[in-house]
Amino acid sequence: MPVRYEKNAYDPVQPRKDGLRIVATRYWPRGLTKDAANLYLPDLSPSAELLGAYQGDEITWREFAKQYRREMIGQRSHIRTLNWLHERGDTLTVLCACEDSARCHRRLLAGLIERGA
What we know:
By secondary structure, the protein is mainly α. The chain has one domain. Helix content is 39%, strand content 9%. It contains 5 helices and 3 strands. The longest helix has 12 residues, at 76-87.
């Protein structure tokens, strides 16, 4: 089963479907209760500079994705641990506050976890 990334952190918790819920945001999402996630891994979020450049239309999605993957090279230990859980059959759901899962780092992160990169 692929790593899930379609939900955002504010979507209702579905323990059977979500499995391990991982919040990957630089700061804890405003108003989100602590029981909405199993893990909080802020180091798996994009840097404030990178996110600001993308949200400010200074860089394209393609460039954001490239730079985000480069930033995650330093987080291989976290990613490999999540890959290990994924490979053993655990369901993982990566969450953040973005509404559009297609243009969000959680989609990129899910791919990195699946590959163990």
